[in-house]
Structure formats: C-alpha cells, structure tokens
C-alpha cells in the first residue's frame, strides 16, 4: 500500500511538471514574439536616418549629452541598451535616432580613422617642373612662396621676414594649376595633402568644419606640409545673408578655414625660434620648419571668392595662370609631345600661329588625338597630317560649337 501511495504522489508530481512545461512553453512563445517585435523596432531605428553628433559628456549608463552637428545647442539623450556606455568618451562620434525619442544607437569610428579615407596624404606626386610647359613666372612665384621657405628657411630668417603662409592660384580651366601645385609638392619633398573642396562639402555634410580642423591637425603633425585645396570656390563663395541649411554648412566650413589660417600663423614661431652659430643647416631647417603648414588654393572662379579669404595676411600670394601665350603654347606642345615618336615634318609653329584661345589641356588633347590617328592607321610615327586632323577634331570642333552657341 505504501508503494501505491508513492506511485500516486509521483503521478501528481508528473502532472504538476507537465502543467509547468505547458506554462513555460506558452511563456517562451510570448517572449519569442516580443523578441521579434523588438528586433523589428531595432531594424527600423537603424533604417531611419540617424543624426550624427559628438559626445560632450557621459552622465550615467543610460544618459549622455551630445552635440549634434546640425543643431546649435547640446541635447541630453538616452543611450540604447545595445551600446556600451563605457565607450562613450567625450568627442566620440555617435549616431542618434530621432524617433521615437533621441537615443544613441551606434558608435562611429573615431575621427582619425574616418578622415584617413579623406585626408589622403600623398607622399610625392611624380610631376616635375619640366613636365609643365611655359608659365615661368607662375613657377617662380610658387617657388618663392612655397618651395624656398620650406627648403631654405634660414634665408628668410636672416632677412627677418616671415615667408607667406598661403597662396592662391587662379586662371581658366585646364591651364595647369593643379599640375603646378603637384610639381611644387614634388620639389619640396614634404607632406602633401590634396583636398578636393567640393567633395569635402558633399561627403561630410555636417562634419565639414571638424574635418577642416582635422586636416590642419594632420598637416601640423606631419610638418612641414602643403595642403592643397583644389576648386576652393566650392567652399569659399561670398557669404550672403539669405542662406539655406546647405549654404550655412558651407559657411561654417569657410569660417573654420579662416580660423585655421589665422590660428596657425607661422610668424610667431618663426620669429621666436633661436638659431645658434653652431647649428648646422639641417638643424636650422628642422627648427624653422617645425609646425610649418603651407596652404595653396586653386580656383577658376576668383571673382566669386569671399574677400576675407583673399585679404593680405591670409593669402599673400596671388598667382595668375592665364591661357598660354604663343611662346608658352610652343613649349606646351613640346612638353606634351616629348615622348611621342614624331616624323620630321611635324611643325607646331603652324598651330601656334593660328592664335587660337586654347588651354594647355587642349594642347595636350591635340597631341593625344594625333597619336590616336597614327594608331588607327597602324603607324608608329606621328606625322604633321595627324596633328592637323587632331587639331580639326578638337579645337576646330570647339570653334564651331562656340559659333553656334553665340548665334
Ligand atoms: N602647361 C602645361 N604643360 C603641360 N601640360 C599641361 C599644361 N597645362 C595643362 N596641361 C595638361 O592639362 C591637364 C589639366 O591640367 P590641370 O588639371 O592642371 O588644369 P587646371 O588648371 O587645374 O584646371 P581646372 O581649373 O579645371 O582644375 C593636365 O593633366 C595636363 O595634361
Ligand atoms: Mg584643377
């Protein structure tokens, strides 16, 4: 009978466990549903555009203050459960959701990693002065403003004048501005940072001002260096009163650029540095080049630039790179065709004498096109006839287009 009683209690226990299992199963189903819902919510939060900002201060595990790049003031936001609050150090870039309420959702890679993609430090562009035909005065200007101060700062120190910080190159498209800057960077053998201004506005909307700061910091860390802002009109257009959000962003970038240009004035450092009689040339150069950053701007629309950028003290040298004169055209033809296999009858004088208003890029184009003509006829020698045809195809065509548009 005792065994019977034992069996009964065991049966009861089994029943109890069975009900428990069914309860747990039901619970599991509910939780699964909830998990699915949360997952969906999480996905949707990730899909809605997130706001970018920097952490100002981390308050506790659930809250922190951030400075969104599109807003003026700081905001207090929640930190999502899946973000590790220990990583929310000041100046970390984070992404925040706006809906349903502001909350930090993602930690973005640190600014340096991000900028590495953008600030491309080119060690040495392989273009020399000899690759550029003509433009001796522009070359001379750049050598005086950039190359000489970097290579032989002691000359300036002895004269007690501070070499220029920045210079701007302007002239019509295709006249070799970018090329000249690369040649200078090559001759200087220093850090060369090549920035395409329009790209930096588009790519880093909302982050532009900070990026300018980072560019200058990178440059200073790797001094002596040259920063080249190509097509600067994308950033430095005249400030006007009625501005949309995009314009405001561009203006913020410009203001930051102006601040940076003023901030790291080389003058104080240059004058403060002491040179002793026993210092050798290399030491002097190193001392004077510490923190030296030269900035070169290039544009083909100088008239739309903000005058604040151009005022003396910021941009001391203005290098005009105009369309080539006849003498320069001759030189550019020679440079562009120097590696080509030319027939004896080739005479560029014919084209120079046409007095066409063409740029160096167009001359380069004529030479390439002439080469193509020869290739089409299976020749290894480029003849005058090829150049004539190429001229007709490139420059002649352009003339016709012009006439049509003016009609
Ligand atoms: N003086 C020159 N000597 C040799 N090649 C030249 C010269 N000027 C221009 N070129 C040719 O034209 C091309 C374009 O030149 P570059 O990019 O420097 O023009 P740019 O003045 O910067 O024009 P943009 O204002 O449109 O940027 C060069 O890659 C080069 O092949
Ligand atoms: Mg250019």
From TrEMBL:
The lineage of its organism: Eukaryota, Metamonada, Diplomonadida, Hexamitidae, Hexamitinae. PROSITE patterns: AAA (PS00674). Residues 163-325 form the AAA+ ATPase domain. One of its GO terms (molecular function) is peptidase activity. Keywords: ATP-binding, Cytoplasm, Hydrolase, Nucleotide-binding, Protease, Proteasome. Belongs to the AAA ATPase family. Its main location: cytoplasm. One of its GO terms (biological process) is proteolysis. This is 26S protease regulatory subunit 6B. PANTHER family: 26S PROTEASOME REGULATORY SUBUNIT. GO terms for cellular component: cytoplasm; proteasome complex. It is found in: Cytoplasm. Gene3D superfamilies: 1.10.8.60, Nucleic acid-binding proteins, P-loop containing nucleotide triphosphate hydrolases. It comes from Trepomonas sp. PC1.
């Amino acid at each position: 009978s005792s065994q019977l009683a034992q069996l009964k209690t065991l049966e009861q226990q089994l029943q109890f466990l069975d009900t428990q299992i069914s309860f747990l199963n039901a619970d599991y189903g509910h939780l699964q549903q909830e998990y699915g819902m949360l997952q969906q919510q999480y996905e949707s939060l990730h899909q809605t555009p997130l706001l970018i900002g920097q952490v100002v201060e981390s308050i506790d595990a659930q809250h922190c203050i951030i400075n969104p790049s599109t807003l003026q003031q700081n905001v207090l936001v929640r930190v999502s459960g899946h973000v590790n609050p220990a990583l929310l150090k000041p100046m970390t870039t984070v992404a925040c959701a706006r809906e349903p309420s502001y909350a930090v959702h993602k930690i973005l890679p640190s600014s340096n990693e991000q900028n590495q993609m953008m600030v491309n430090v080119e060690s040495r562009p392989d273009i020399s002065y000899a690759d550029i035909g003509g433009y001796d005065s522009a070359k001379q200007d750049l050598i005086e403003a950039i190359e000489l101060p970097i290579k032989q700062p002691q000359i300036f120190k002895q004269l007690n004048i501070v070499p220029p910080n920045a210079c701007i190159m302007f002239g019509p498209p295709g006249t070799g501005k970018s090329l000249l800057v690369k040649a200078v960077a090559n001759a200087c053998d220093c850090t060369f940072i090549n920035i395409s201004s329009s790209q930096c506005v588009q790519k880093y909307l909302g982050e532009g001002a900070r990026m300018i700061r980072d560019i200058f910091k990178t440059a200073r860390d790797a001094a002596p260096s040259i920063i080249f802002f190509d097509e600067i009109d994308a950033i430095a257009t005249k400030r006007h009163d009625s501005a949309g959000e995009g314009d405001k962003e561009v203006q913020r970038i410009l203001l930051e650029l102006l601040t940076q240009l003023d901030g790291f004035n080389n003058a104080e450092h240059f004058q403060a540095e002491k040179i002793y009689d026993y210092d050798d040339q290399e030491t002097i150069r190193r001392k004077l080049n510490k923190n030296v950053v030269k900035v070169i701007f290039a544009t083909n629309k100088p008239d739309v630039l903000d005058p604040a950028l151009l005022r003396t003290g910021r941009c001391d040298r203005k290098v005009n790179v105009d369309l080539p004169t006849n003498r320069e055209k001759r030189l550019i033809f020679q440079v562009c065709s120097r590696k080509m296999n030319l027939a004896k009858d080739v005479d560029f004088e014919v084209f120079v004498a046409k007095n066409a208003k063409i740029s160096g890029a167009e001359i380069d184009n004529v030479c390439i096109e002439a080469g193509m003509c020869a290739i089409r006829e299976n020749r290894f020698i480029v003849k005058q006839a090829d150049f004539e045809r190429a001229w007709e195809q490139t420059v002649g065509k352009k003339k016709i287009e012009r006439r049509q548009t003016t009609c």
